[in-house]
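Hey, quick one: can you model this chain's 3D structure?
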Amino acid sequence: MPTIEIILGYWMGFKLIAIFAVLAVSLVSGCSSIEDIGLGGDDTASTVFSDIPVPPGFTLNESESHYQLTGTTRSGHLVYSGWEATSELVIFYQEQLSSENWTMVSINVTGYSGILEYEKTGESLYIEIQCDENDHAVLTIDLVIN
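Sure thing. Here's the predicted structure for all 146 residues.
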């Protein structure tokens, strides 16, 4: 006949297993609220990043782009390509981002390339522009959480 200590030992072991199972389920279901999206199309990215304009004629490189959503928090790395001069892209972003309530932190442009840095409450935005002599441009847009 089992003693009370053996019964209590089994009961405590069962409680620990149950607690760990509940924690594991909570962690897994909590992670399901995080979406790491390799981008299934422009429409999703343009919705999530609607306050970060893309110049007309630029297309998203889906294989190099991704973003993550956790509730209302977002971050991402988006790569676009198109045809436009560096100076025109800088002017485009200066005009468009200010109308979306982004605050300019710094702009550094040299020749065919440039880096633009903007901030908004809780977020930093970095736009890297790489152009060649024929005005083929690659935009790398990084949005990070402050």
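One thing worth noting: Strands lie at 34-37, 59-60, 66-70, 73-83, 103-110, 113-120, 123-131, 136-145.
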